[in-house]
Design goal:
The protein is α/β, with parallel strands linked by helices. The protein has eleven helices and 13 strands. It comes from Ruegeria meonggei.
């Protein structure tokens, strides 16, 4: 008789293998599991010894799965997905229908929070937790889904397109009036407020000018690490901010910020809802996701 009821190796070895196989990196798996790469390597070697087979092909700059490794990863990924779905259902039932959604601080303040407030008016029984951070949402199993500009590098995450925004220079009414009809070269000589973000997917001022055909050197005189601060500086006449037209639509409609015409750029990437597949989401999470998608359809820019 097997020493284990299901004849499985220790779950710690399976967990380490699944993370390493998903990332194809012992280092990234270690970061996710909050252990050292050496600990992950030790667990993988123990699993390979238990199974008497090689699961990874070690290369100079990473690892690849062997055929046995691919078969085991497919089985684990599918099984862990089913377990995750059951756990989400249990948590949803015991937590009173809680949903956790992530976004950048700017997206939360300018777009997501007002949408959640409208959702609560329709579904007051659903508790929504918002996580706002200006760095990538990596390895956050507590997040049902998050709003991201551009696709995430994790192929296991589901991507639902939201919208493609437009990028326009924005400024205070006085500055915008002075720059009506200004050339790209003239705009490049203005004080530009640059956003310094850990997430490199965001379009920057130099990229904006380059996409519109202006290859002038763009000086960096003012740098902030918060989009909300960039907009505040622009409102006060301290320079030009790169405006995401859909996100800042309320500020444009109120006249607090004015788009500097006529230059604009369709954003190179779309915004997405990124997270677990629908079949792994709780009923409450699916309800909020559906609501967000309806919000996008009902608003045009």
């Amino acid at each position: 008789m097997s020493r284990r009821h299901y004849n499985l190796p220790p779950l710690t070895t399976l967990s380490a293998f699944e993370a390493a196989a998903r990332h194809l990196s012992f280092k990234n798996a270690a970061e996710e599991l909050s252990v050292t790469p050496g600990a992950v390597s030790h667990q993988i070697k123990a699993l390979e010894g238990d199974l008497d087979t090689v699961l990874f092909q070690r290369k100079h700059r990473g690892v690849d799965l062997t055929e046995d490794g691919k078969a085991l990863y497919e089985a684990l990924s599918s099984s862990f997905g089913r377990i995750s779905k059951v756990l989400a259902t249990i948590r949803d039932r015991t937590s009173g229908g809680k949903v956790t959604v992530g976004s950048t601080t700017a997206v939360a303040a300018l777009w997501l929070s007002p949408a959640v407030i409208r959702f609560w008016r329709d579904r007051p029984e659903v508790n929504v937790d918002q996580l706002s951070q200006d760095r990538p949402f990596r390895d956050r199993p507590d997040v049902d889904f998050f709003i991201r500009y551009g696709q995430d590098s994790d192929p296991n995450l589901s991507h639902t397109p939201l919208f493609r925004d437009h990028l326009v220079p924005v400024a205070s009414p006085e500055v915008a009036e002075r720059l009506i009809g200004a050339s790209l070269e003239t705009l490049a000589a203005e004080r530009l407020i640059h956003l310094d973000s850990e997430d490199r997917s965001w379009t920057t001022w130099p990229e904006w000018f380059r996409q519109l055909g202006c290859n002038d050197t763009i000086p960096i005189e003012s740098r902030v690490n918060s989009y909300s601060v960039a907009l505040q500086l622009a409102r006060k006449g301290a320079g030009l901010a790169l405006g995401w037209q859909r996100l800042i639509q309320p500020m444009l409609q109120s006249g607090k910020l004015v788009a500097v015409s006529p230059h604009h750029l369709t954003a190179p990437k779309q915004f997405y809802l990124v997270g677990r597949p629908d079949e792994e989401l709780s009923d409450s999470a699916r309800a909020l996701k559906t609501w967000i998608l309806q919000e996008v359809e009902n608003v045009s820019v």
